[in-house]
Every structure is written in structure tokens, then in C-alpha cells.
């Protein structure tokens, strides 16, 4: 009727043919049921580019097992037409390289999330990887009783930030190394007792300070940086770094971080393109680290052995 009013002639077969072509092109044309007969265009929850980004993120994430990653990708593919799904399938990288073998990851995330919301402590077993001369595997693990505050996604890994009952600080645990999670009846310790945060646990500020998710004591650091490092520093600190001065080839900034081994590793990756101006204790730590690296190369021994000497 509408087509006739617009002066467009049509017949049933051509309309069905057009609908079929629209579906092949990825449009969700749905047949109506009930009293309102006909077809309508359904709005998809995600568009093609959004689905592609989500699929690539899932497949490249080491924390998610290969089987679970494929399951999630298949669910996302249901949001596309069969032709779009086929085209994406041909382009995706599905090597599974470095994927976790923790098939209970999503169950543990659910438990941890519920404990955070309920402000309850959790008990879990935390493992590290070891090599027994034949293959790499997990050690027997260690049990922790923790007040959980946040689940944090950083550098393709999921971390749990919380307070281990023996200490008055916040520590971090990789969720893919966690096993046997239980929510306890005990109330969690309030984060205001062990962190600088009062009203809410500021995840953005916490991750910015905790370089590579190492915890430590707060430190105000002055850095002189080559101009080529502007983007890496902005990527990490965003608008939370204070520019002190800017010269032709360098700029100087003040940043608030936690003093830790993670900070030393992060600074070391930039080599001579970044210099610590203050505090002197950090300058000394960087120099000592550089000397140990030089000694290890001179002796042809792993750096761990030079630490022990």
C-alpha cells in the first residue's frame, strides 16, 4: 500500500528478493508476528566495527582460555549476518598463543565481583608458574584471606586489588593465577584504612601510581624526558602529570607514583631518553640497577645471580 501511494509498482516476488538481498548485506530484516503482519528492520546491538574490536580483544587476551575465547567470539558472531561473520572469521587471528589454562576464570570473576559489592572478604589459593625440568606448570599455591576492592584490567591482564589481612596496604593479584575462590562471612576491611582513598576506591588513580601493578610507597618524581616520549607518558599518566618546563628537545614533568621494582622496570625501558632528576634515592636505585645489568653482561651470568652477590 505504501509503495502504491508513492507511485512505485511492485510484486510479491521482487519484494521477497529485495528482503533477501538486504539480509545478505547484513541488515536485520525481521518478519513480524501477530496482528501486525509484514517485515521490519531491527536495530542491532553492535555494528560490524564494534564486533570486530571486541573479537580481536578477546582472542588476544592471555587471561581467557582458548576454549572460552572461541565461545565468546561465536556469541558475538550471532550479532552479524552469516556473510559478515564469514568474512570476519577469515581475518581473525586464533592461534591461542599464550592463552590461560584457567577455565574457571569467569566463575572466579563473578565471585570476586559479588564479594566486592557485598563488602565481604574472600579466601583463595594463589599460584605462580615454575619449571620442573620438563614443562612449565603451577606451584602448589598459597592461601590468602583478602578484603577485595577492585578488579582491574591492565596490559592484557586482569588484576584483583585488595588488602591482605597481615598488612596495612593494598596489594595486587593476577586473576588468572587465582584458584578456589570462596566468599567469606567476614566483613571486608574498609579501603580507607589502607589507602589514600576515602569516598571510593579510585581505580584510575591507583593504576596510574602502581606502575606495572607493583604496589609501594607514594613518591613524587621529577623526570627529564626526550620529546619522543611525550606520547608514552601521556598514555600512562594522562592529564595527571605536571609540566615543569619545556625545551627544544626535552621536557620536564612531575608525576606521583609508587616506589617499586615496577617503577624501575618502567623507567629502564626508555634508557637514556628519560632521566630521574629527583628524588635522589630513585636516581641512586636506577644507577645501581644499571650497574648490575652491566655486571651481568660482563660476567655472562643471569642478573638474578648478580643480585645475590
Task: Spell out the key features of this protein.
alpha+beta; 11 helices; 309 residues; 4-stranded antiparallel sheet; 13 strands
Outline of the structure:
This protein is of the alpha+beta class. It is built from eleven helices and 13 strands. The longest helix is centred in the last third of the chain and has 20 residues, at 280-299.
Overview of the structural elements:
There is one protein chain. The protein is an alpha+beta fold and 309 residues long. It folds into four domains: 2-42, no CATH class; 48-91; 105-209, no CATH class; 217-308, Alpha-Beta Plaits (2-Layer Sandwich), CATH 3.30.70. It contains eleven helices and 13 strands. The strands form four sheets. It has a five-stranded antiparallel β-sheet, with helices on one face. A four-stranded antiparallel β-sheet has the order 11-12-10-13. A two-stranded antiparallel sheet has the order 1-2.
Report the mean per-residue pLDDT as an integer. Answer: 85
Number of helices: 11
Strand content: 25-35%
Strand order of the largest sheet: 8-7-6-3-9
Overall structural class, as computed from helix and strand content, comes to: alpha+beta
Radius of gyration from the alpha-carbon trace, in angstroms? 27 Å
Element-level helix/strand string:
HHEEHHHHEEEEEEEHEHEEHEHH
- For the record, the count of structural domains works out to 4
Distance between the termini: 90 Å
